[in-house]
Amino acid sequence: MKSILVPVDFSKATELVLRATVTMAKALDARVTVMNVAPREADLLGRQFTRKVITEPVPEDVRERYDNLMACAKQLEDADVVVKPLLLRDDRVRGVISEVEREKADLIIMGSHGRGALYRRIVGSVSEGVMTRFAIQRREPLRVELEAFIQAVKGEAPVPVTGVDGLEALRLSLKLIESGQKHKVLQT
User: Fold this and answer.
1) pLDDT tens digits, residue range 156-168?
2) pTM
């Protein structure tokens, strides 16, 4: 089963993120970890050095975050998505990255507020901070496709994508286009 990590901040973008999560989780038959990262709390020497998972009883200063996170998890559960809520105290970017690694997430779905470069430079951006920290192997796609085809022809590997897979990808792509044109979430 695939794993999707969904960091949320309870802004206006969260609703769109959750709708996209439902669509992707169903399409990929994936389990979801919906998470929020609360501000760090001073411990030893006035600093928080380790990641802290917040569970019941929830401290009063993060009660609203916890309740909002549980509401997000319930929304996903009500859409028949397997979901695990997670509330952490950590640096926001470091917290998300550590969960990607811990959960071995196949996909991250997160929103962006679309603020300008100056704002991001001064204040920062969690989504940009997360995305710039992953080393992505960039191989030329056509070469990868041809190598896989040659291996399949030689009998060294199975066919990576069948005709049925291609039709399903096309069907899903057409649904995504239709969803965008109608400005609503459509059932796959």
Assistant:
1) 988 888 888 889 9
2) 0.63
